[in-house]
């Protein structure tokens, strides 16, 4: 490993751990302080934290790789993500911030569901917690594995050593500083990703003689590369269903616990418009930069006569070819930042569910605030250990399962979150049915051999679409057939509506 690269990475790791120590010293030793930052995050931190924890390594590896292979047609996913994120900020973010506080100061998503529907049976909390704990443990394992492979392919280290380094640094600042540390490190990581995704495609364009020369080089090699409606990899025109399927990724935002928990932590809804502007600006520029890296990277490879075995390594390859080791180390740190920001968020959400929704709810109901913080830290370490053990098996089906978790979370929680915030007549029974039906539909759509020649239906239409539709229909139909009789639910919703209206007009 080059000395300059090593220096850049060492500085990055030191900065992340330093932020964790700072957050520990300034944080409240309460469950709300450790698991939600005391609801005092600023708009910039919320915006970049949500963005960084959302995009993970997919932003710097997946998007450039898709553009490298398929050309501009892959932008439909980006269009869908931008639309979904904007609607999430507009519809969910401010309402969830107010409602979670009105609903007995809920600090986790299962906590909110139980309090919103006065579920004394705890069924909602249990079902939601199971979904979160299982899928986020697998999600975390996937991120740690990505870190291990990055260290192996880029730095020549053993894969297992890469796992321990990636997990060790993340666990260190997450365990010490909790939600505040995760959010602050996400902010810094978001800035690093932003700079990297502007820097790499800009230098590529400069190397190729300008934007016009770059686009001309792409068109000359394959006109389909610059077409939104033709997959350059297959040469087949995208159908309407194909475009809708790609854009439907945006539906997933409404049900991602590690993203929407940021909205619960902002200091007030007066900060939400600023967070939306910052978050959407960051997302649009970063996605455009990631797409440009893949597309312009292909033009550079063609122009220089080089071959790339794995399209998803185009960002890594360009950072090693075009920059000196010190800057190259910074760019590789951007990939680590993307991976670590998501791992830390998922670790903390899983820890929150284990602490608040399992331990404090069922094992020790009178558990003190300080003890909940201790349990939270233990849970972070425990989940990390399990995730590392799962990541050791490179050939397991974990990664393929995790690749569909976005659809699972989006369908299971998305309609429930939206309806719970907008429709006062939604019933508790419908809420339970929404989680089960949404998750089940996605699993059947992905894994059942119901397509042609026993293929998955997911090959033709992304599973989140039927999952989201089924979950929404269950909410509407069940709420109509079996309306909620608990008047406390209606009263709570009215309290929320009055509070939201009051705070929105201040």
TrEMBL record:
A GO BP term here is: proline transport
Cell compartment(s), UniProt: Cell inner membrane; Cell membrane
User: What biological function has been recorded for the protein in this entry?
Assistant: Catalyzes the sodium-dependent uptake of extracellular L-proline.
Please report which protein family the annotation says this sequence is part of. Answer: Belongs to the sodium:solute symporter (SSF) (TC 2.A.21) family.
What is one cellular component GO term in this UniProt entry?
plasma membrane
UniProt main location, coarse: membrane
| GO molecular function terms listed in the Swiss-Prot or TrEMBL record | L-proline transmembrane transporter activity; proline:sodium symporter activity; sodium ion binding
Name of this protein: Sodium/proline symporter
Query: What is catalyzed by this enzyme?
Result: L-proline(in) + Na(+)(in) = L-proline(out) + Na(+)(out)
The record's listing under NCBIfam families reads: Na_Pro_sym, sss
The record's section on CDD domains has: SLC5sbd_PutP
Q: Which residues cross the membrane?
A: 6-24, 75-92, 123-141, 161-182, 194-215, 235-254, 280-301, 321-343, 374-392, 398-423, 430-448, 460-478
**Native source species:** Brumicola blandensis
Which keywords belong to this entry?
Amino-acid transport, Cell inner membrane, Cell membrane, Ion transport, Membrane, Sodium, Sodium transport, Symport, Transmembrane, Transmembrane helix, Transport
Instruction: Tell me the leader sequence span.
Output: none
The membrane-topology field of this record reads: Multi-pass membrane protein
